[in-house]
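REQUEST ID: PR-0412
SUBMITTED BY: lab tech R.K.
PRIORITY: routine
TASK: structure prediction, single protein chain
INPUT:
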Amino acid sequence: MKNLKFSLFLIVILSVAGCAVQNQLSSGTKVVKVVPGLKAIDYAMYYSLPRTVFDLEVIVDKKITKPGPFAAFAERFLGLSSVPTRESVVYSISEIRVNTHPEKDPAQMYRIETDGKPVGARVSLTADGLIRGINLPVSPDVALSQGAFQKLSERQFDFPQFTDLTLRKSTEPIPDTIFRLVRTDTSFIKIPLIRLEENQKTLLLQAKEAADNIMLLRTGRFKLLNGDYAYKENDGTRIPEGTSLEVIIRELAVMEEGYVSLFAGRTQTERQTMKFSFTPNGQGAVETFTLCSFSAANGVEAPETAGADPVVFQLTKGDANMMDQVLWADDEKSPKVPGLAYRIPEKSRIEINKGREPIFSREFLVSQSGRIDFVPASVLTDESVSVEFYPAFGSIKNIFRR
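STATUS: complete
OUTPUT:
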């Protein structure tokens, strides 16, 4: 019952805490906001409130499509229409990754000055000076970042070269008639001779042979699957089964896919990662930042490039916090309780648009989108009370009695 009353007392104190640039604490301790021109002193301790920084990665795929050498015969032999007939390069955004990390807010740095009993020495900080807690018994493990990603593409293919044009030689013997001169007693006579010359096969003939190979592969796979080899054409050889059959079927499909690509073309994808960073200033309901411009023909370009779609990062604050409207309303009659500054972060929606097309949307907690308030002095001066903060946001996590 006693602990419950104490907790309620702390909540009431937190709800009426006011804002101040310089706060006088008991036991000769005060907190001063660091501003340009502030005179340095000895025996002081500094801490900072965090601000949220967005780390963005735009994953861009460069897809190079090469037509197959038999593209002109795709519809004739395989019934494939609309196959590529010329080489093309197309860029696309395949994935958006958004992460956050905290850093010291240069506009929210404070100094704890002690005189006599060093109350401020019980304040715990992170390695880079962010507020972590007061009177903490142990160092808490706290996550310092948020992350989200969104994929925008499906399966990618990679066929670099066309090497398997046919199972047979690329040349064929062509008969050629030559004449041999034979001298007789009165004249010369021509004796015809037939010889075979190896000449390059025509593209039409090579395409037909490749199409025949595709049909053979499909027929063989069909017979393996429906049991024809086991019951009709088997000469006593053991038919593969189990894992062996799975491997054979899979490899036959790979071979067929390679031959079909001779007609349908092949695609190779190169992936690039573009990195950006944005720090909101916390002012206004909406903040925007143009990351770059993007076009399918040229990929990522400068933000001001004409003829390309701008890729815009937009941060929109959530609905108004009721605490700002009611509990924290200024009242001259209400006493202001001094103490350590801390943040009350707000949830904001992050949207990334390419032109008018939305490609990413998530909600994140943003430290600088909220307000700043103060931990009461009574908490600082009571060694039995501990306060734990979220270092990534500067907000209160726990208030408890040790």
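NOTES: The radius of gyration is 38 Å.
REVIEWED BY: pending
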